[in-house]
Specification:
Strand content: 15-25%
Largest sheet: 8 strands, parallel, barrel
CATH class: Alpha Beta
Strand order of the largest sheet: 1-2-3-4-5-6-7-8
Helix content: 40-55%
CATH architecture: Alpha-Beta Barrel
Shape: globular
Distance between the termini: 18 Å
Order of helices and strands: EHEHHEHEHEHHEHEHEHH
Number of domains: 1
Bound molecules: the ligand O=c1ccn([C@@H]2O[C@H](COP(=O)(O)O)[C@@H](O)[C@H]2O)c(=O)[nH]1
Radius of gyration: 17 Å
Length: 233
């Protein structure tokens, strides 16, 4: 089932049972779900099958980063499992991104292919630590331009960068933004954060929300509060 909602709930759980327990309370008409490294490493393709069986569109967030041939094969494998969206790291370079896109096109998949720019958990000082002299904003811009040129449907970035990326890559280029923190939630390990309302106002296409929902005393109350903030309830 497809939905007009921009919300993607990150099912970052330690077991498939726990993830499906929340999925059973969510409505695929009101959100999409994201399967990341922890859940997929524990549950594998069965998790995707179970979520698809419940009617959800799934973002498989494994952030592939390897040589072009390997990433193209991994992206194809994800598409064969019917995921709605899959991602790679833009820092894998244009040849890697182009190989992934070419593989999807060659096999006729319409899976959305997104490139991670700079993780939302990183700030300027973290980039300096790994030898990148650029600010996070400049590095995101650089990688987004490369991703756009390499045929990606959009990028993962923080909502702090959404408006600028719309200016330089156009409004059709997707901005998938984690680091979403409603007023009631703590930033925790995230560094570049925005509230749901700020993210939408900045032009984000999709908001990825994990712990503010999954770790809430009542996840459904937290989700409803976010929907209310966005006036989509
Ligand atoms: O730059 C990125 C890329 C991916 N993520 C993922 O999004 C969720 C965010 O979870 P929260 O609990 O809301 O912080 C998580 O699955 C990350 O792996 C990201 O945060 N930043």
């Amino acid at each position: 089932m497809s939905t007009a909602s921009p919300l993607i709930v990150a099912l970052d759980y330690t077991s498939m049972d726990a993830a499906l327990c929340l999925a059973d309370r969510l409505d695929p008409a009101r959100c999409r779900v994201k399967v990341g490294k922890e859940l997929f490493t524990r549950g594998g393709p069965d998790v995707l099958e179970a979520l698809h069986g419940r009617g959800f569109e799934v973002f498989l967030d494994l952030k592939f980063h390897d040589i072009p041939n390997t990433v193209a094969g991994a992206v194809q494998a994800a598409a064969e499992q019917g995921v709605w969206m899959v991602n790679v790291h833009a820092s894998g370079g244009s040849r890697m991104m182009e190989a992934a896109r070419e593989r999807l096109d060659r096999h006729g998949f319409d899976t959305l292919l997104i490139a991670v720019t700079v993780l939302t958990s990183l700030g300027d000082e973290d980039l300096a630590e790994i030898g990148l002299p650029a600010s996070t904003a400049a590095q995101v811009e650089r990688l987004a331009r490369l991703a756009h040129k390499s045929g990606m449907h959009g990028v993962v970035c923080s909502a702090q960068e959404s408006a600028r990326l719309t200016e330089i890559c156009g409004s059709d280029f997707l901005k998938v933004t984690p680091g979403i923190r409603p007023a009631f939630a703590a930033a925790e390990d995230q560094r570049r954060v925005r509230t749901p309302g700020e993210a939408m106002a900045a032009g984000s296409s999709y908001l990825v929300i994990g712990r503010p929902v999954t770790q809430a005393e009542d996840p459904m109350v937290a989700l409803a509060a976010i929907e209310k903030e966005l006036a989509i309830l």
